[in-house]
Amino acid sequence: MDRRRLPTPALLIDEARFARNLGRLNARVDALGVPLRPHMKTVKNVELARRMLVGHPGGATVSTLGEADHFFAAGFDDLLYAVGIAPGKLDAAARRIRDGMNLTLILDHPEAARAVAAAAERTGVPFRVLLEVDADGHRAGFRPDDPTLVECARILERAGVTAAGVMVHAGGSYACRDRTCLKRIAEKERDDAVAAAGRLRAAGFEAPVVSVGSTPTALFADNLAGVTEVRAGVYAFMDLVMAGLGVCEIDDIAISVLTEVIGHRSDQGEVLVDAGWMALSRDRGTADQAVDQGYGLVCDEDGKVLAPEVIVRATNQEHGLVGRRDGQALDTADFPIGRRLRVLPNHACATAGQFERMALIAADGEHTESLSRCRGW
Ligand SMILES: Cc1ncc(COP(=O)(O)O)c(C=O)c1O
User: Which ligand 1 atom sits nearest the alpha carbon of residue 235?
Assistant: First the structure.
């Protein structure tokens, strides 16, 4: 389809930038000698996932059982479900394993370990589990020296469940302000993962898997000795948060929302577009960064940034208000009704999550292929 005939708002993925982003991370992990287990929470699409897996046959990461089903149906059978398992989902997980899915779960609490052990005994399914370790106080996980790490492996072992190793996601990297911080967090993520696996091994467990990663740490790690796989997802599309962190350039952002000018607020020097929070999402991830990009940075129809100050300043459900960050007036004559613009989003996963389909813009910049996205849990 011709890009110019796409109905708005539409989710666009620039194929050339997407490919460049994959190449960059692949080169990085190849240099460090560790395979990638890409996280599919960002692309949520089989065709793009296949491209991410080229050269990395070790499987994929998912953030919902719905994603696991979507990718399993397309032939991906080695899936790490990287959200702490809810006991209420264990029967559903057991059904999938019985159907042939090689599904790995994660947990970080003895009660969760007991729930998995009980489900294994009840269903006869020998779950495979990674123990989540917290390297930076960001979210979930055992502290690396927490004695319950080994206790959980024992609870699982007694029920025939394999504690296959450890998993760390250093989401604290998203709060970094400079390269030194990114490098330090990447090092801490590796160190804590390797130390936790070492504690399991010292207690007699094999713990073959040491899984680490986020896009910032994957791109800024200098040493991954002892790590067996790296996970990253947002690297495929990149976004304004990653650019604000210094992890990529604005020019690397492959995702945008195509929108059309629908009105003027000439007195205020602002324009209205048909992309509100329903299209852009409510994510304000750049609000705490040095440059607050509002709800997104505005580009022309071909994806060229108009001016660094022109952003979506506010949103209603289906309206976006485009203005200048510095409060100066836009010349509304530059934005005739019907002019098409693109908005680069704060957070690729959140914005993409608003859409059922995305248009992949070919390298010629004109033609698009419509790709579906999996949704739900
Ligand atoms: C457990 C886990 N691993 C890997 C990732 C990928 O990180 P990123 O989105 O920075 O690529 C995420 C993202 O939320 C995650 O939760």
Answer: 11
- Quote the pTM value: 0.95
- Paired with 60 in beta bridges are 79
Tell which atom from ligand 1 comes closest to the C-alpha of 216: 10
The pair of structure tokens assigned to 17 is 């930038």
170 C-alpha to ligand 1 centroid (Å): 8
The pair of three-digit structure tokens given for residue 133, joined into one six-digit string: 């370790």
Atom of ligand 1 nearest to the CA of 233: 11
Point out the domain boundary residue: 210, 236, 262.
Answer: 236
Helix, strand, coil distribution of the chain in percent, nearest 5: 35, 25, 40
Which residues are CB-contacts of 289 (< 8 A; sequence separation ≥ 6)?
241, 244, 245
Whether residue 296 lies inside any domain: the answer is yes
Q: Does the beta carbon of 190 lie inside 6 Å of ligand 1? A: no
Q: Report pLDDT digits (tens) over 6-51.
A: 999 999 999 999 999 999 999 999 999 999 999 999 999 999 999 9
Domain boundary among 182, 204, 236: 236
Chain-centroid distance of CA 345 in Å reads 13
